[in-house]
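Lecture notes, continued. The same structure-token format from the folding unit now serves as the input rather than the output. Read the line below as a description of shape only.
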């Protein structure tokens, strides 16, 4: 099983997620592994999380949560949108969820390729 990716793009996507965890969370924890035909990377923080109703909207360009928080921390609201575009271009996806213990977990899933499909030299 193989993971074919554009390292600079994927690095940028992960950096966005880690920046968010630091900015809006506090303690950041990252882990990764393999599940069936996917690799996953999980970034968790212990911040306030995101209201469930906004978990999809935060992926919209320029969408940011309450203004007070935004002024304080000053991002443009593009990070998640760009990160998801990059990961989806690799056939994967990013999902966000609130943790029972508090804080957010961002999960990046990337499809693994079998050796045979790798030999077909699929464009990535
Ligand atoms: N780990 C997190 N915990 C709590 N809220 C988050 C977290 N990550 C993102 N958010 C919320 O989602 C919004 C959108 O995030 P996104 O990364 O797209 O933009 P940004 O961080 O505001 O700016 P940029 O990434 O462009 O510098 C953030 O403004 C914040 O309100
Ligand atoms: Mg961001």
């Amino acid at each position: 099983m193989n993971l074919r990716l554009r390292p600079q793009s994927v690095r940028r996507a992960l950096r966005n997620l880690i920046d968010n965890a630091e900015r809006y969370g506090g303690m950041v924890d990252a882990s990764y592994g393999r599940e069936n035909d996917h690799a996953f990377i999980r970034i968790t923080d212990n911040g306030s999380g995101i209201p469930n109703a906004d978990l999809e909207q935060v992926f919209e360009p320029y969408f940011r949560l309450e203004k007070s928080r935004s002024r304080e921390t000053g991002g443009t609201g593009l990070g998640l949108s760009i990160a998801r575009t990059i990961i989806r271009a690799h056939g994967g996806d990013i999902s966000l969820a609130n943790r029972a213990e508090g804080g957010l977990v961002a999960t990046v899933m990337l499809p693994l390729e079998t050796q045979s499909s790798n030999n077909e030299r699929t464009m990535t």
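Point for the exam: The chain has a mean pLDDT of 89.
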